Amino acid sequence: MRLHVGCAMWTHRSWPQPRTPQERLRHYASWCDAVEGNTTFYATPARDTVASWAAQTDPSFRFVLKLPKVVTHERRLTDVTDPLRAFLDAIEPLGPRAHALWIQLPGSFSPADVPTLGRFLGQLPHSHRYAVEVRHQAFFTEPRAIRLLEETLTAASAEWIPFDTTAFFTTPPTSDAERDAWTKKPRLPLRSVALTDRPIVRYLGRDDSARTVQGWRRWVEITADWLREGRSPTVFVHTPDNADAPQLARRFHDEVRARVPGLDALPEPIPVEPLTLF
Q: pLDDT at position 277, please?
């Protein structure tokens, strides 16, 4: 039984950071024990770069790595043998740290495309876990579409990743970061059903930490229930500016732990030495 928590990135201009970029992931991994691999959506990293990620993290650290956009958005899961092979080879040094490969699909990927997803999942190697994020409204509002996707994912032992933006869209934005997110983030109904023993949740709060905490209350209870059921969830905490995301992720872990006393605490973060003039 373990709860992993993390953020959308491992470095941010507002976070305390070591002097050298090579140490930033190691420092982040002392705050949180999971991270979203969003950068892999834009380009497959060099294998040596991935090896450096592995060297900075414990084998229990979780990377949830997004498949490249050429696979999911440009070719829409069809004729993707070469870019997929290149991606799988690049991330091999992570070993068990590659917790799940994240298949984020565009909003235009509809129930009519689910057979394509099923064929794609059926061709993937069993050496990895897979998790799918969809953004077409029908998957959240139409029972037949929901059932079709759930059956397809279950057949492949794949998880469905919800991106909960409901708390964010409760009231209008109040900052530049919130206004930017207001135009870019998906507005989808809440989904909180786990299909596997390792559910993954993405939660978007507000720049006001108190409102972020207020909005995640239901996820604290859901996550605690999953842990009692023997599942090992991973929860990623986002805010529009992400300035306090690591602290918030740790707070979420603490709130769940207060309800599940057998859950181990996160380790103490590595202190960052203050910058000096000389």
A: 39
